[in-house]
Every structure is written in structure tokens, then in C-alpha cells.
Design a protein that fits this description.
five-stranded mixed beta sheet; mainly beta
């Protein structure tokens, strides 16, 4: 591994040497500096955020022409995906090589996901409701508790502001894919202002076969596996007086998707996401802001097809969270004190069934300091779970700003992942004695951003212990199952370098990112399943008058389908083309051609991926 890291460092130095002259030539005193909230749980300029953070703006989403949240995330640095078929099937998102259950997903501050699987249902998330996304890489357990080993993805739905705004779109694509969406938003002025936003969308597609020829006779079925997704989301806010707000946010999404469960079975899954939160935010003094929030998130996963070989089943997760956050400012410094109570309830009609509940009481504190060019962040947290007891995490980070645009950072943090209900209680697999996975991450980074040029490089070294894996035979003498069990036996090392850059040359925009990593199971000395040592994305677009045209190049090295690293998933490269035409101020047309070379590749063994496909859409938005 030492030689691998040396090669990575050499490549980083080379990339910096090549890009730095042109980047520094663009330096200006007015640095592009958006406000983000996920890294520290309060609004903060990106130039003062010490965590490795990425924002995907509403303009980025619109320009991308992505058809799903999974497709959008796949193009971001530090992220890989795996999917068992088309857009409606189950998907995994890996951040910095971490497992999909080692990441946290939030929607407007509400944590979502299944407590039995430990993962969020990305396929059921409606892209049409999303305003922007923030991604925080690396450990974030001191901010958000269990499971933030690889990072945090927070999705923000559309919010009302200003005069009444109407927007919408319709689209059609390959596999008889149809999409329609509509939005309305606005706000009233004055001391007692009222804001509102409502979004609704529907997607439907005939799809293609989820499995491929070569799959086991148990799963293969050469039929089309389509999906039908409906969603609605909204936000309401009321300012009672200056500095005093109450609000409500919700999102409901329903996904009815077909999948393959063997010849002759029309297998269907029915997924529902239901989130709601209410809050009151009060600025009691000029330097003290307090927020009290109550949230509920439901993840309902069922198989409604009586024709499925194993019959019907239903597994539901309900998470409730009550939090009280206080931010106290001392000049440019910020002290944050947080208390929260989270409850998880699982009900099941499957056989064997997994049911139960657990709760976690948490207390956290952080201090962010700004002293001229020096930035410092220190945080600590204590989680007390009814299932696995007390767990402490902490982090410290330091940054130095050489100029308004150039900054270097270094950090160290601990995190953990709580065992899922399946890993604790599933009959013949779980063990109630299983402990949380623990991780220790150290990283350094450099970032240059002046609004015209962006260059960043990060090196991370994340050591995970007590990794929960399926172990056969089960080492626990009390285990009575026939097969293996979930057991804290392995160690993993998530190490790598991420390089990203963007540059504007007048009407030409160029972006790119490269990940050189080695996500490894150290106990077995094997590469972690479905994760490549190298993956990258490059894109360029050019605008002439009302026309904008662009191209993307997605690259991934080989991966392994099994833990023994004996079954290989080949590397691939995909080329996509897209274009937009602004008909007038409010109307535009989008066209997209994905995988123009009709590349045959796999994200999961014997599961199909889309060949050459197209999508065209008409959009309306008041400006």
C-alpha cells in the first residue's frame, strides 16, 4: 500500500503543477463562496467549511439532464453506484469506498432509510422535487450520529421565495419513459411573511429486463421490468416576527417497480417514502439562535405480487427524531450545543419476521473558530443507544487560507455504524451481541476556488474495525442457525486521493474529477465488493446564443462481484451527449443521448444496464 500511496501523491502533485498556473492567473479578491449548512448544521460560507464538501445546485441538476438521483450522484467525485437493473430497482451508493450502509441520507434535515437494511432507498427519491444537494465526505458522526463513516448526502427540496413562481416540464425517452412535473412557490413580504412551495411529479417507463442471460435460473426472466413513480413535496414557512420562524416540510414518494425473480413470475416491489418535519427557529438575542425540530420518516418496503415465488411481504421502518439545537456566536466564532432523541420502530409481515424498536439519546457540542487566515473546528458527541449502549465520537480540523481563494486543511475524526435490525435480530443470521463498527479517519486537502477556476485535492485514510460481515461458520457458540451469521470480525482500510477541477473559458465550461483509491478488506486482503480502484468523470459544454451543447465521459476500472475477488466486473467508459435550446425567456427544450456507443457493462453481476438511450423534454419556468 505504501507504493500505491506514493503513486497517488505523485499524480496529485503532477495535477496541481499542471493546473495551478492557469488557476492562479484567474485569482480575484471576490471569491465564489456559496452558503452551505450540512457540514456544521448551520449556515456557513464554503470558504470556512473544513469538511470536504460538494454542492450540486439547481442549475447543475437542470443542466445535467439526469433522469434519477442515482444517475446524478454517479457523476460526482468520490461516489460509485451499483444497481440491480433499471431505474426502479434497488441501488447502492458508495462514498469514498465505504459501504452503502455506512452513509447517512437526509431530506430537508430528516434522516431517511431502512433500519433493517441500514440503507436509504435512492430509487424512490424523486429528482423532480429536489432544489439542490450537499455532500459532505468523511466521518460526520459528531454531527449526525451513527452510520456517517463514508459521509452525508443531504437533499433539499424546493423552497418558496419572492413573487409567485410557476414551473414544470414534460419529457419522453427510450423504453417508453414518460415524465411530468409541476411546481409553484412564492412568499409574501413584510414583518409577518409567509412562504410556500409545492412540487408534484410522475414518472413511468416500460423498462428493460433487470437480469441478463447468464444469471441463475432462480432470477433470470427476459421480460421488461418497468416502474411507476409518483411524488409530492412541499414547504411552508411563517415568520411571526423578525428572527422568529415556524415551518413545515414534507415529501411523499411511491415507487411501484418490477424486478426479476425467475421465469414465469411478475415480481413487483412497492416502495414508499413518507417524511415530515415541523420546526420553530428563534433568534432570542443577536448572537443566540435556537431551533426545536420534530421529524418523522417512514420507509415502507413491500412485495405486493402474489405471483412472486415467496409470496407477499412487507417491512416498514418508522424513525422519529426530536432535536434541540442552539448556536451561540462570538464574533465570527460559533458554539453549537445539540440534544436529540431518535426512535426506530420496525414492523414486518415477512417470514421469518424482524420486528422491534430501539432509541438513541444524543448530546453533542462543537466550536468553530475563525482568526484571520486560521480556521479551527472541534466537536464531540455521545450517543446512548438502548440496543448497543454508549458510544463517543469526536473530530478536530484545522485550515489555513493563503488567499481568499486558496486554502489548505487537515483533520482527524472518529465515527461508527450501528448494527442493523437484521444484523442483530434476523433469525438464523443476526446476533444481539453484535457491536457497532468503528472508524478513524485522517485527511489533508487543498482547495482553490475563485468562481472562474476550481481545483481541489484530498487524501484520506479511514481505518474501519469490527466490520460486520457474513461469517461461515459462525464463531459465536450460541448461534443456532444453519448458515453463517453477521459477526464483528473484519477490518477495512478506505484510502485514496480525490482530484477535482473546473474552469470557465468564456462560453466553454470544463469539469473533471478523478478518484484513485484502495477500499480494502484488510482481514482478507481483498478489494471491497463492487468498488473500483480508479474512477473518473469529465464533462464540457459550450454556449452559443440560445444553444448549449455538452458531452460527458464516465470511466471506471474493474471491480469484483464477490468478497474472494474471483469474479470480475470489467471496467467501462461511457460517453453521453446533451443539449438545450432556450426558446424564449421562460421556455426551453432539452435533449440527451446517453451511452452513445451502446457500451455493454455491468454495475452488478448478471444485472442489465441501459444501452444507448435518449430523452427529450420541454421545460417552463417563469423568470
Amino acid at each position: 500500500m505504501t507504493h500505491a500511496v506514493s503513486r497517488h501523491a505523485a499524480l496529485t502533485s503532477l495535477a496541481l503543477a499542471i493546473a495551478a498556473p492557469s488557476a492562479f492567473a484567474q485569482a480575484t479578491p471576490d471569491t465564489y463562496d456559496p452558503v452551505v449548512v450540512t457540514a456544521s448544521r448551520y449556515p456557513q460560507h464554503l470558504s470556512e467549511v473544513l469538511s470536504d464538501t460538494l454542492t450540486i445546485s439547481s442549475e447543475d441538476i437542470s443542466r445535467s439532464g439526469a433522469s434519477s438521483v442515482v444517475d446524478l450522484l454517479q457523476k460526482q467525485r468520490g461516489i460509485e453506484v451499483a444497481r440491480n437493473g433499471g431505474p426502479g430497482t434497488s441501488a447502492s451508493v458508495f462514498m469514498r469506498g465505504a459501504n452503502s450502509n455506512q452513509n447517512i441520507v437526509l431530506v430537508d434535515g430528516v434522516r431517511i432509510g431502512s433500519s433493517t437494511l441500514g440503507t436509504a432507498n435512492f430509487s424512490a427519491l424523486p429528482l423532480s422535487s429536489i432544489d439542490h444537494i450537499e455532500i459532505v465526505y468523511g466521518p460526520a458522526s459528531t454531527m449526525y450520529g451513527a452510520d456517517a463513516i463514508g459521509g452525508v448526502i443531504q437533499i433539499f427540496t424546493k423552497k418558496g421565495d419572492g413573487p409567485v413562481q410557476l414551473s414544470g416540464s414534460v419529457g419522453y425517452g427510450s423504453d417508453n419513459t414518460r415524465q411530468v412535473e409541476a411546481h409553484v412557490s412564492g412568499a409574501t413580504g413584510g414583518a409577518n411573511s409567509f412562504s410556500y412551495a409545492l412540487s408534484a411529479g410522475k414518472e413511468k417507463s416500460d423498462g428493460y429486463s433487470a437480469s441478463k442471460l447468464g444469471a441463475s435460473s432462480f432470477t433470470y426472466n427476459p421480460d421488461k421490468d418497468g416502474y411507476d413513480k409518483e411524488s409530492v413535496s412541499g414547504q411552508i414557512g411563517y415568520q411571526m416576527a423578525k428572527g422568529h420562524q415556524v415551518g413545515l416540510a414534507f415529501m411523499n414518494s411511491k415507487l411501484d417497480a418490477q424486478y426479476d425473480a425467475g421465469p414465469g413470475y411478475d415480481a413487483r416491489s412497492n416502495q414508499k417514502l413518507e417524511n415530515i418535519s415541523v420546526f420553530t427557529r428563534n433568534e432570542f438575542t443577536p448572537n443566540w439562535t435556537s431551533e426545536l425540530r420534530y421529524a418523522e420518516a417512514r420507509d415502507k418496503s413491500g412485495d405486493d405480487s402474489a405471483a412472486a415465488s415467496w409470496g407477499k411481504s412487507q417491512i416498514d421502518t418508522k424513525q422519529t427524531d426530536l432535536s434541540w439545537q442552539n448556536d451561540i456566536r462570538f464574533g465570527r466564532d460559533n458554539l453549537q450545543l445539540l440534544a436529540s432523541y431518535r426512535d426506530e420502530d420496525v414492523t414486518s409481515s415477512s417470514t421469518p419476521e424482524v420486528t422491534g424498536s430501539r432509541n438513541t439519546k444524543s448530546f453533542a457540542a462543537s466550536y468553530n473558530l475563525v482568526r484571520g487566515a486560521h480556521l479551527l473546528s472541534v466537536s464531540g458527541r455521545r450517543d446512548d443507544s438502548s440496543a448497543f449502549g454508549k458510544h463517543n465520537t469526536g473530530s478536530v480540523a484545522y485550515g489555513y487560507r493563503f488567499t481568499n481563494a486558496l486554502r489548505a486543511t487537515a483533520s482527524y475524526g472518529t465515527s461508527f455504524r450501528a448494527p442493523t435490525f437484521n444484523e442483530l435480530y434476523y433469525p438464523g443470521y443476526g446476533l444481539a451481541s453484535n457491536k457497532p463498527e468503528r472508524a478513524r479517519n485522517a485527511e489533508v486537502g487543498v482547495r482553490y476556488d475563485d468562481g472562474a477556476s476550481l481545483l481541489s485535492a484530498s487524501y484520506y485514510h479511514n481505518k474501519v474495525t469490527d466490520l460486520l460481515v457474513n461469517t461461515t461458520p459462525c464463531p459465536d457458540p450460541t448461534f443456532t442457525g444453519t448458515f453463517g451469521c453477521a459477526y464483528n470480525v473484519n477490518k477495512a482500510l478506505l484510502e485514496g486521493i480525490t482530484i477535482a477541477g473546473a474552469r470557465k473559458f468564456g462560453a466553454l465550461n470544463v469539469t473533471g474529477n478523478i478518484d484513485l483509491q484502495d477500499p480494502r478488506d484488510e482481514t482478507k486482503d481483498k478489494q471491497l465488493v463492487r468498488r473500483a480502484k480508479r474512477h473518473a468523470n469529465f464533462a464540457a459544454d459550450y454556449t452559443v446564443g440560445a444553444w448549449t451543447g455538452g458531452a460527458e465521459w464516465q470511466l471506471s476500472g474493474k471491480r469484483f462481484e464477490n468478497a474472494a475477488n474471483t469474479t470480475t466486473l470489467g471496467g467501462y467508459g461511457l460517453v453521453n451527449l446533451y443539449g438545450t435550446y432556450q426558446v424564449n425567456r421562460d421556455w426551453s427544450v432539452l435533449a440527451r443521448w446517453n451511452n452513445i456507443a451502446d457500451k455493454n457493462y455491468e454495475l452488478a453481476r448478471f444485472y442489465a444496464t441501459p444501452g444507448s438511450n435518449f430523452f427529450v423534454g420541454l421545460r417552463y419556468g417563469m423568470k
